[in-house]
Specification:
Blueprint: E1 4-7, E2 10-12, E3 18-24, E4 34-40, E5 47-52, E6 59-61, E7 69-74, E8 79-84, E9 93-100, H1 103-107, E10 116-117, E11 121-125
Parallel strand pairs: 2-11
Antiparallel strand pairs: 1-3, 3-8, 4-5, 4-9, 5-6, 7-8, 9-10, 9-11
Length: 127
């Protein structure tokens, strides 16, 4: 069982930045886990936005966040980060991290391909 926990959400003005963290109780050092970030805005379906593989740190981003968000990881710290810059009101959502042992599910950010989820952290972008 891999328990994930997100943190770092909050309220920020448009154009501002936040850094979200996803930590694991069991650790990411086994090399098996690929981590993706998803978000769910009110009244909308959960959307995959970023993925990072393990050993070679390949990344993938949704078009909606490409160039503004950066995903990174440090297995020794059991943490994956999502740096969010140039935030827009439409980025308002609950953000979740998910893990999978399937690299294709991660790179394609397939919600159904995730094995474990955190409980989410809320991000509100508003002036």
């Amino acid at each position: 069982q891999l328990e994930l926990k997100e943190s770092g959400g909050g309220v920020v003005q448009p154009g501002g930045s936040l850094r979200l963290s996803c930590t694991s109780s069991a650790g990411f050092t086994s090399g098996r886990y690929f981590i993706a970030w998803f978000r769910q805005a009110p009244g909308k379906e959960r959307e995959g936005i970023a993925c990072i593989t393990n050993s070679n740190r390949r990344t993938a981003y949704a078009d909606s966040v490409e160039g503004r968000f950066t995903i990174s990881r440090d297995n020794d710290k059991n943490t994956v980060w999502l740096q969010m810059d140039s935030l827009k009101p439409e980025d308002t959502a609950v953000y979740f991290c998910g893990s999978t042992t399937n690299p294709l599910s991660c790179m394609a950010m397939v919600e159904g391909g995730m094995n474990y989820w955190g409980n989410g952290t809320r991000v509100t972008v508003s002036s």
